[in-house]
Amino acid sequence: MKSKTVLLLLLKRLASESTAERRGMERMKRVLVMLFVAFTVLVMLPEEASATRWTIGGNMGWNTNFNYTTWAKDKHFYKDDWLFFVYDRNQQNVLEVNKTDYESCNSDHPLHNWTTGAGRDVVPLNVTRNYYFISGKGFCYGGMKIAVHVENPPPPPKAAPIKAGATTIVSSRSQIILLPVVFAIGSAWDAFVHFCNCCFLGGVNC
């Protein structure tokens, strides 16, 4: 009789533990679904404007017999962009000069020598101003000179206001999308904490 009672108690215990495990798995599945939804929404958020690396001259690179003024004319160079000079390291170089030396191709007193010796030089545009670059050794006279005007990036576009007659609430797209993300992450965290309490602390109502 006692053995039957013990057996019944063990079966009930196993059944309750099995039910708790199933509930725990269900909660974990809900957590994973919520995290997946939050991740998907974050991917859909508009990206911030990123810096651009400009290869000077495009496919022509930094070379003679090329009009760099025309090449740069229709381009917008923003703060934190990069200039990438590709050239023959055995002959040319990259010198930053002032406007006067740029116009006269004078390489005697450069403001900065960006030449590294690899023929692959990168110049960060971290200030909004005019930059002037030439190649010394006489190559400036062959057209190896470029002036770059650097400006601040344009502000992000604003959302259109709601129609007249309604309460005007102007909010950016990212703010609108971010709200459900916050709620989704909060719900996922709450479910995860509840699951941990059930599994490891033997919480009530698991």
TrEMBL record:
GO terms for molecular function: electron transfer activity. The keyword Glycoprotein applies. GO terms for cellular component: plasma membrane. InterPro entries: Cupredoxin (IPR008972), Phytocyanin-like (IPR039391), Phytocyanin_dom (IPR003245). Residues 1-20 form the signal peptide. It comes from the Eukaryota. Residues 52-152 form the Phytocyanin domain. Keywords: Disulfide bond, Glycoprotein, Signal. May act as a carbohydrate transporter. Belongs to the early nodulin-like (ENODL) family. This is Phytocyanin domain-containing protein. It comes from Crotalaria pallida.
